[in-house]
Write the C-alpha coordinates for this entry.
Amino acid sequence: MFWLIFGIFLTACLGAGATGGLFPPGRWYRDLRKPSWTPPDWVFPLTWMILYVCMALAAARVAMLPGNGVAMALWAMQIAFNALWTPVFFGLKRIRMGMAVIGALWLAVLGTLIALWQVDTVAGLLFVPYLVWVTIASALNAAVWRLNPGEARAA
Protein backbone atom coordinates (compact mmCIF):
# COMPACT_ATOMS: atom_id res chain seq x y z
CA MET A 1 0.00 0.00 0.00
CA PHE A 2 2.88 2.39 0.80
CA TRP A 3 4.25 2.20 -2.76
CA LEU A 4 0.83 2.87 -4.29
CA ILE A 5 0.43 5.98 -2.14
CA PHE A 6 4.00 7.02 -2.91
CA GLY A 7 3.24 6.66 -6.63
CA ILE A 8 0.16 8.86 -6.30
CA PHE A 9 2.10 11.60 -4.53
CA LEU A 10 4.99 11.32 -6.98
CA THR A 11 2.53 11.67 -9.86
CA ALA A 12 1.19 14.85 -8.23
CA CYS A 13 4.76 16.17 -7.97
CA LEU A 14 5.53 15.30 -11.57
CA GLY A 15 2.30 17.00 -12.63
CA ALA A 16 3.47 20.18 -10.89
CA GLY A 17 6.90 19.75 -12.45
CA ALA A 18 5.40 19.35 -15.93
CA THR A 19 4.71 23.07 -15.94
CA GLY A 20 8.45 23.45 -16.60
CA GLY A 21 7.94 21.73 -19.95
CA LEU A 22 4.81 23.71 -20.72
CA PHE A 23 6.43 27.04 -19.81
CA PRO A 24 10.18 26.67 -20.45
CA PRO A 25 12.48 29.57 -19.51
CA GLY A 26 13.29 30.40 -23.13
CA ARG A 27 14.96 33.44 -24.59
CA TRP A 28 13.13 35.91 -22.31
CA TYR A 29 14.75 34.38 -19.22
CA ARG A 30 18.15 33.92 -20.87
CA ASP A 31 18.20 37.63 -21.73
CA LEU A 32 17.44 38.78 -18.17
CA ARG A 33 20.25 39.91 -15.92
CA LYS A 34 20.88 37.30 -13.24
CA PRO A 35 23.19 37.18 -10.22
CA SER A 36 26.59 35.53 -10.58
CA TRP A 37 25.52 32.72 -8.24
CA THR A 38 22.67 31.56 -10.51
CA PRO A 39 22.92 27.76 -10.76
CA PRO A 40 23.64 26.31 -14.22
CA ASP A 41 20.57 25.19 -16.17
CA TRP A 42 21.25 21.45 -15.69
CA VAL A 43 20.97 21.82 -11.89
CA PHE A 44 17.27 22.66 -11.95
CA PRO A 45 15.75 19.44 -13.39
CA LEU A 46 18.12 17.23 -11.39
CA THR A 47 17.37 19.06 -8.15
CA TRP A 48 13.63 19.03 -8.75
CA MET A 49 13.57 15.29 -9.47
CA ILE A 50 15.36 14.58 -6.18
CA LEU A 51 13.08 16.98 -4.31
CA TYR A 52 9.93 15.49 -5.85
CA VAL A 53 10.98 12.00 -4.71
CA CYS A 54 11.63 13.34 -1.19
CA MET A 55 8.31 15.20 -1.15
CA ALA A 56 6.41 12.11 -2.28
CA LEU A 57 8.19 9.92 0.26
CA ALA A 58 7.37 12.37 3.04
CA ALA A 59 3.70 12.47 2.06
CA ALA A 60 3.44 8.70 1.68
CA ARG A 61 4.99 8.17 5.13
CA VAL A 62 2.37 10.42 6.75
CA ALA A 63 -0.68 9.68 4.58
CA MET A 64 -1.81 6.63 6.53
CA LEU A 65 -0.87 7.82 10.01
CA PRO A 66 -3.37 9.19 12.51
CA GLY A 67 -3.36 12.95 13.00
CA ASN A 68 -2.20 13.67 9.46
CA GLY A 69 -4.97 16.07 8.41
CA VAL A 70 -3.12 19.36 8.73
CA ALA A 71 0.07 17.94 7.21
CA MET A 72 -1.78 16.56 4.20
CA ALA A 73 -3.76 19.78 3.69
CA LEU A 74 -0.54 21.80 3.80
CA TRP A 75 1.14 19.31 1.45
CA ALA A 76 -1.69 19.91 -1.04
CA MET A 77 -1.31 23.68 -0.67
CA GLN A 78 2.44 23.66 -1.24
CA ILE A 79 2.20 21.51 -4.38
CA ALA A 80 -0.43 23.92 -5.74
CA PHE A 81 1.89 26.91 -5.22
CA ASN A 82 4.76 24.83 -6.62
CA ALA A 83 2.76 24.22 -9.81
CA LEU A 84 1.70 27.89 -10.03
CA TRP A 85 5.10 29.57 -9.93
CA THR A 86 6.41 28.42 -13.34
CA PRO A 87 3.38 29.60 -15.36
CA VAL A 88 3.40 32.93 -13.53
CA PHE A 89 7.14 33.59 -13.82
CA PHE A 90 8.00 32.00 -17.18
CA GLY A 91 4.59 31.85 -18.86
CA LEU A 92 3.22 35.28 -17.94
CA LYS A 93 6.72 36.74 -17.46
CA ARG A 94 5.57 38.34 -14.20
CA ILE A 95 8.68 38.62 -12.03
CA ARG A 96 6.95 40.54 -9.24
CA MET A 97 3.94 38.22 -9.15
CA GLY A 98 6.35 35.27 -9.23
CA MET A 99 7.90 36.72 -6.07
CA ALA A 100 4.50 36.73 -4.39
CA VAL A 101 3.83 33.12 -5.44
CA ILE A 102 7.25 31.90 -4.30
CA GLY A 103 6.80 33.74 -1.00
CA ALA A 104 3.52 31.87 -0.47
CA LEU A 105 5.27 28.65 -1.55
CA TRP A 106 8.05 29.22 1.00
CA LEU A 107 5.52 29.70 3.80
CA ALA A 108 3.55 26.64 2.67
CA VAL A 109 6.72 24.50 2.54
CA LEU A 110 7.75 25.66 6.02
CA GLY A 111 4.27 24.93 7.38
CA THR A 112 4.24 21.53 5.69
CA LEU A 113 7.68 20.68 7.06
CA ILE A 114 6.56 21.53 10.61
CA ALA A 115 3.27 19.65 10.28
CA LEU A 116 4.95 16.59 8.77
CA TRP A 117 7.62 16.65 11.49
CA GLN A 118 4.91 16.56 14.17
CA VAL A 119 3.48 13.38 12.68
CA ASP A 120 6.70 11.68 11.52
CA THR A 121 10.20 13.08 12.09
CA VAL A 122 11.67 11.43 8.99
CA ALA A 123 8.92 12.95 6.83
CA GLY A 124 9.76 16.37 8.22
CA LEU A 125 13.45 15.83 7.54
CA LEU A 126 12.64 14.87 3.94
CA PHE A 127 11.22 18.37 3.48
CA VAL A 128 14.34 20.19 4.72
CA PRO A 129 16.16 20.11 1.33
CA TYR A 130 12.98 21.41 -0.32
CA LEU A 131 12.84 24.39 2.05
CA VAL A 132 16.53 25.09 1.36
CA TRP A 133 15.95 24.97 -2.41
CA VAL A 134 12.85 27.19 -2.27
CA THR A 135 14.88 29.64 -0.18
CA ILE A 136 17.54 29.71 -2.91
CA ALA A 137 14.88 30.02 -5.62
CA SER A 138 13.24 32.87 -3.69
CA ALA A 139 16.54 34.70 -3.45
CA LEU A 140 17.10 34.15 -7.18
CA ASN A 141 13.61 35.45 -8.01
CA ALA A 142 14.26 38.51 -5.83
CA ALA A 143 17.65 39.12 -7.44
CA VAL A 144 16.18 38.87 -10.95
CA TRP A 145 13.48 41.33 -9.91
CA ARG A 146 16.10 43.74 -8.54
CA LEU A 147 18.45 43.38 -11.53
CA ASN A 148 15.69 43.88 -14.12
CA PRO A 149 13.60 46.81 -12.85
CA GLY A 150 12.28 47.75 -16.30
CA GLU A 151 11.17 44.19 -17.01
CA ALA A 152 9.61 43.87 -13.56
CA ARG A 153 7.65 47.11 -14.03
CA ALA A 154 6.50 46.12 -17.52
CA ALA A 155 4.81 42.95 -16.32
User: Anything to note?
Assistant: DSSP finds nine helices and no strands in the chain. The chain has a mean pLDDT of 95. Residues 95-119 form the longest helix (25 residues).
